[in-house]
Automatic annotation (TrEMBL):
Natural source organism: Pseudochrobactrum asaccharolyticum
HAMP domain span: 324-377
NCBIfam families per UniProt: sensory_box
One BP annotation, GO: regulation of DNA-templated transcription
Location in or out of the cell: Cell membrane
Kinase listed as a keyword: yes
Histidine kinase domain mapped to chain residues: 514-736
This protein's name: histidine kinase
Amino acid sequence: MDKTSLVEWLRELKPAGGSEHRRLLALPGVIIVVLSIVASLASFLIMIGVTPIIPNLHVTLALIIINVVLVVSLLALIIREIYRITQARRHGRAAARLHVRIVALFSLIAAVPAIVVAIVASVTLNLGLDRWFETNTRNIVNSSISLTQAYLTDTARNLQSATYSMLQDMDGQRTLYSLDRNGFVQLLTLQALGRGLLGAQLLREDGSIAVRSEQGGANLPQPPSEALETAKDGNPVIIPPGPTSNFVGAIIKMREIPDAYLYTVRAVDAQILDSMRLMEANTARYQDMEANRIPTQVIFALLYFGLMLIVLLPAIWTGIAVADRLVRPIRSLIGAADEVTAGNLDVSVPVRSSDGDLGALAGTFNNMVAELKSQRTDLIAAKDQIDERRRFSEAVLSGVTAAVIGVDALGLINIVNRSAEQMFCLEPDAVIGTSLSTHIPEIGQVFEVAHDSGRAVYREQVSMMRGGLTSTFNVQITIEDGTSDERSYVVTIDDITDLVQAQRSTAWADVARRIAHEIKNPLTPIQLSAERIRRRYGKVITEDREVFDQCVETIVRQVGDIGRMVDEFSSFARMPKPKMETIDLRNSLKEAAFLVEVSRSEISFEQRLSETPLYGHFDSRLLGQAFGNIIKNASEAIEAVTGEDDYRGHILLKAYQDKDQLVVEVIDNGKGLPGDNRQRLLEPYMTTREKGTGLGLAIVRKIVEDHGGHMELHDAPADFYNGRGAMIRMVFPATSPDAVVETDSNTTEELQA
């Protein structure tokens, strides 16, 4: 890197504002890194002795101080920079995470090799020391010491044996010692030569020489005074070789000669003795090294750690500098991207040639933002147009009473109008994107048939249960233009339940009028003729008179039954218009219950009526007729239960207000209602009793509907005789509706129209 490139790099490291912090990181950091490397290299060369500088204590201390100061300075810069990076991340600055990751990556790349080298060096040192101080090496050293000690011990043992033998020979020469000293000296010399001794002496207690052998006796080293003191007890004392001598001595007290000690000396091979001394010195050094093994390992580990820091810290600083250079354009891109995300498409990123590929990326980003700005303008215009169309479509759909559901080719719902939400209890947020068959299985089956048929318009009438009631719907499925995979469908659903009921009621009312007209005309002549026959021929017929009277009575009774049935037909065909007045619904219910209760004493009646009045606009006569019919049907359902000895019928009457509705419930524990198609019991001429006309519930339903209410057929609640029996619920408006539904033949025809 030349001078120009270095200056440019440092200029790039400095932010646009020229902050003092970035200057501190740039040039001073480079200087400290260079000085650290130079100082570590110089220290290494001085310590190994390849420079004229002698590595004495002062030089070593100076080198340590210089390196520590440089390392601490660089470490302070790195810590400060890391603190800046972490603060940027904590405050959510752009690219802060990436900056941390890059710095961590560079630091890891620099740290791992340095740490591995330090660990390997420490392990290698430990392994080397382990080999030095392993058991085999220690045994060899100890064996060599033992060998030298054994040699000296053997020499001393031989000298001790020779001295003791010489003592026995010389101890009996006391007379010779006293009378003839020369003869004693000659004998002492012969004893020393005969035993291979260097010489022999007789010493007094004070250490002075009394007698010495002629050969070598004058040059013998004198024994230490401690040896004489030890020899006083009569045991021989061995005197090992001194640091500079190669003689082994022995001293023992004479038994017969008073105040005399026999002192003998034998020479040891000087070469062997020097080798022994060298071996002992080496062994001492070995043991000293073994004792200082852990401190040595710690010192070398610290040395390796220092070298690792010298290598690692500059690498980390360099990594931080490179990371700054990489992150700067990325941070600009992220900041610009955030502006774009916030909706600002006028932002641009400065492009620098020194950024390389990142600069090219910045240019591409600027082009993309310009293209996005152009496209957004077009999209806004298109969106405004689409929103205008959507608002128009939603306004149209919200005003349609029929349920409208948009479905794609896979049967997934993409739009529902308000009528569909209310009709099928759908939540728009929950059904969008889900299958039509999941929420409305019956319509889903029709959709599958329409999808497979391929017809542009498919129509079908469907009956389904809703809230325990059977409703009838006209379903029309229209296929929009498009390919088989992309086309969508519009499902239109009309609830025609009331229309179907009105058509059926109109048809049955017309049938009832015709039947009543055709049957009622001949009934009176038939009855009169039967009575006339009984009066005229009753006295004439004497045989089988009882049979005659029975036949005439049967004709009259059946004509009466047919007449009553015709009256019911007429009542159903021409229901009177209700005359509304404000009354308490509870009174009509009590009166109807009383009429049935007095005639059915075997049935227990229970009333749970609201404590507050239940006012509404009703026709009291028609309302009482409806309540009486329902209670009468309940009592007949109880009578139909047979074969249970402990059974007793029970009818529960309930009347209460639920928000803006008045509810009347008649519950019995009779035989109950059929499970299938029970709603058809409200249609004319539908009955489950043998003698029923099928008009009772139809009339009650018409009365309820004329009062703006509706009827529901349910099983008895679970807490009422374990759900045994039936419950008829009639719901009326609590307040007078603005327009009371008046259903007669004319209004039915209007409904059909």
